[in-house]
Amino acid sequence: MATAPYRIEGATGAWEVVIGLEVHAQVTSEAKLFSGAATAFGAEPNAQVSLVDAAMPGMLPVPNGECIRQAVRTGMAIEAKINKWSRFDRKNYFYADLPQGYQISQLYHPIVGEGALEIELEDGETKTLGIERIHVEQDAGKLMHDQHPTRSYVDLNRSGVALMEIVSRPDMRSPAEAGAYLTKLRAILRYVGSCDGNMDQGSMRADVNVSVRKPGDAFGTRTETKNVNSIRFVMQAIEHEAKRQIAVIEDGGKIVQETRLFNPDTGTTRSMRSKEDAHDYRYFPDPDLLPLVLDDAFLAECRASLPELPDAKRARYEAQGISAYQAKVLTSDVDIARWFDTLLEAGAKPVAAANWVSSELFGALNRLGKEIGESPVSATQAAELLALVADGTLSGTLSKQVFEIMLETGADPSRIVEERGLKQTSDTGAIEAVIADVLAKNPGQLEQYRGGKEALFGFFVGQTMKAMGGKANPAVVNELLKKALG
Prior knowledge:
With 486 residues, this protein is of the alpha+beta class. The chain has three domains: 8-301, no CATH class; 308-420, no CATH class; 428-485, Arc Repressor Mutant, subunit A, CATH 1.10.10.410. It contains 15 helices and 16 strands. The strands form four sheets. Strands 1, 2, 6, 7, 10, 11, 12, 13 and 14 form a nine-stranded mixed β-sheet that branches. Strands 5-4-15 form a three-stranded antiparallel β-sheet, with no helix packed on it. Strands 3-16 form a two-stranded antiparallel ribbon. It is elongated and about 95 Å long.
């Protein structure tokens, strides 16, 4: 059953929200787009600035081939059209953090054309969202207003950093769809390795375009909320901005095309400046840069370098018997997927591995406040632990004990089993002796069981396992108890 469309109720009835996102993703590269300056996060202000980045006279830009390669690979990952011929343009505007007085971007001939992204919503429905283009551009610097009571300082470390601007079609109709789109896009970028997706560090951020209309009407006037740096904040900004626009229209006002800023502390947006159009920037081809011309060999290398992407990996996991839900969780993040693939490559059975990772490993990491990349237990150690369960060396209870010791010490499971004597026993003689003792100590329960209260069978299993410190093979215990109880 299809879910009802997202609507916001106003004084005059229901309104529909129209959303488009422009995602700025910092390209994974050790150098900037047109210079050799470093791009590492957290450096001292102005410590990573070349003469090109600072726009010293006579300095000419030279394109970084790795940045171009990463943009092409990203386009291929969303099955977009790759343009063999593209061109850089100058976007002219004055701002104190823009040393050149213009930004080198791509307006008329982007490197990547139309593509699409399929998202899955919470109710399991899927929706295909259009992507208009991906173009490559250089970032501006950063103004710092909190360093001095009366002055602003400029940090040019980001000046010239390579960005991919990924521009969606206005196909999203709810905050949830926008959240699903960003989540999926971020996962793909991280799988491809073209962006680390660290939104809190600013290496992925979104400009949020929102308009409202009565269902079925033409598009309304949109506003653009700039540089929102978390998926949750994007969803909040959409909801607030849509409600604000509805209130303005219903009060008899008009929406002004403008740029706005989001305040995460209050969950509100405020006006920043009137929205510019392309002609305000006086775009023209950059005279210092030749057009980019990509040959077939370069494109073939880019395609061959792509990893298995989330949707394909998820389908592979499901084909191995893993549940759809677990497959979705295991492929949601590239670090989780790589860890799990290593676990499978080390010999773990897919279904047992998925169950163990979803319950035991994730539970332990959550308790420790660690990401999977920080796990004290490696994937190969986990495979060894699961193998010890599979061959009967460890029971489920014992495996939990061993796992806790692994988390504390980092030791291999076989060594822990050997040193601490935690091996499961299938010695029928020893188990039979314990069963006889348990039955002798519990004559009342034995009489009730033989009188027809068969639910007490679990009581005798528990008592036997307890007496043997959890080391007895449960299957053997069950079999021998059935014989002893008659």
